[in-house]
Amino acid sequence: MTPPHITIRQFGPDDAMAWRTIRLEALANEPIAFGQSLEDGQKQTIEDYRKTVAGPFPPFAAFDRGTAVGTAGFYVMDGTKRSHRGMLWGMYVSPAYRGRGVGRKLIGAVIDHARTRVEQIHLHAVITNSAAYNRYRAMGFVPYGVEPRALRYAGRDYDEALMVLALDACSAKNE
Hints:
It contains six helices and seven strands; from the N terminus they run E-H-H-H-E-E-E-H-E-H-E-E-H. By secondary structure, it is of the alpha+beta class. The longest helix is centred in the first third of the chain and has 14 residues, at 16-29.
């Protein structure tokens, strides 16, 4: 059960330092789960982080009494032909909060937000990360392909599952 003091909201313009802190934690703790490296994340200035949280698609965060303990990003794809599709990215929950429903709440917030903007949400999940893969499956995401050797870390290649959640189908099922 998610602790009652956990709140989910999008980062705002004043949350650049909180965004930087949780993002660097994620990159350090789960290096194979993200396309960005810790080194690249550390090179970004606080202004770079501020641009993300003040931009058109600020990431969502789970906060425990003001401290970010999880994050999930979402954006609508560019271009007229792809604007019906969104992308879930950067999903992370601090180890002390895993298994307590925080990840489910974050993904649920992204889905609720996306429902008014796109018809489907895509994501990439490293295949060896069974906890993430299984969570996405449990929330209705369906695998539709594999991107071989999508990421390389410490001399090893990792495949990613390509997954999609059709929001129009979800809506129809729930009506």
